[in-house]
Design a protein that fits this description.
heterodimer, A: 4-stranded antiparallel beta sheet, B: 111 residues, mainly beta, 5-stranded antiparallel beta sheet, globular
Chain lengths: 115, 111
C-alpha cells in the first residue's frame, strides 16, 4: 500500500503570493493533520481534519486554511506569503482523529521557499 | 511553541556504540512518542510509550518514561551508520494526535 503522498515536493513562491499544498492519506485513513517544520526545529501542529470537519487548529494566523475532501485527501492553503512561511510542510494521516495511543504516518513533505 | 527540550541537540558517536537521547516535557500526557527523520524527509514513527508504562523495547531501541520528572530517554544500542538522523520526541498533551514535538537531537554515526 502507498504511504502518505504529498505534492508538490518543492515549491518556490514570492512574498504576497498564495500557495496550495496537497496530501493523500494512507488508504483507509480518515484523519489528516498538517505540520510546519522550520529548519532546525521540530514540527508544529497546524490543523487536523476528520470527515471533512476541522478537529483542531494550532497557533497559526488566519492566512492558513485547509480542507478535506470526500476521498479524505486534503489541501493546505497559505495566503499572503511571508518570508517566515518558508518551511517543510508535513502531512500525516491516521485512522481516526480521536484515537489516542496510535502513531501518525507522515508523508515526505513539501519544501516551500518564499523569496 | 515547542513542548520541551531534547538533550543533547547534537550527538556524534562511533558505529557500534550506544546512543542516548533525552526529552523533557512540561504538561501531563497520555503518551510520549519518538520519531526519526532523515535529512529533509518525513518523520518515521519509532515507538510509543503510554503514561502508565515505565519502559518499552523495540529491537535495538529502549525507551524509558518518568512521569514524575516529566522526562523520557531513547537508547539506541549497537548503533549503525543508517541510524544517522534527527530524533524527535512528541507528546499528545493538546489532544489525540495533535502532537507537540521537541526540537530534536541530531545523531551522527561515524563509521
Amino acid at each position: 500500500d502507498a504511504g502518505v503522498t504529498q505534492s508538490p515536493t518543492h515549491l518556490i513562491k514570492t512574498r504576497g503570493q498564495q500557495v496550495t499544498l496537497r496530501c493523500s492519506p494512507i488508504s483507509g485513513h480518515k484523519s489528516v493533520s498538517w505540520y510546519q517544520q522550520v529548519l532546525g526545529q521540530g514540527p508544529q501542529f497546524i490543523f487536523q481534519y476528520y470527515e471533512k470537519e476541522e478537529r483542531g487548529r494550532g497557533n497559526f494566523p488566519d492566512r492558513f486554511s485547509a480542507r478535506q475532501f470526500p476521498n479524505y485527501s486534503s489541501e493546505l492553503n497559505v495566503n499572503a506569503l511571508l518570508l517566515g512561511d518558508s518551511a517543510l510542510y508535513l502531512c500525516a494521516s491516521s485512522l481516526r482523529w480521536d484515537r489516542r495511543n496510535s502513531p501518525l504516518h507522515f508523508g515526505n513533505g513539501t519544501r516551500l521557499t518564499v523569496t | 511553541s515547542q513542548q520541551g527540550e531534547e538533550d543533547p541537540q547534537a550527538l556524534s558517536i562511533q558505529e557500534g556504540e550506544n546512543a542516548t537521547m533525552n526529552c523533557s516535557y512540561k504538561t501531563s500526557i497520555n503518551n510520549l512518542q519518538w520519531y526519526r527523520q532523515n535529512s529533509g524527509r518525513g518523520l518515521v514513527h519509532l515507538i510509543l510509550i503510554r503514561s502508565n508504562e515505565r519502559e518499552k523495547h523495540s529491537g535495538r531501541l529502549r525507551v524509558t518514561l518518568d512521569t514524575s520528572k516529566k522526562s523520557s530517554s531513547l537508547l539506541i544500542t549497537a548503533s549503525r551508520a543508517a541510524d544517522t538522523a534527527s530524533y524527535f520526541c512528541a507528546t499528545d498533551d493538546q489532544g489525540a494526535q495533535k502532537l507537540v514535538f521537541g526540537q530534536g537531537t541530531r545523531l551522527t554515526i561515524n563509521p
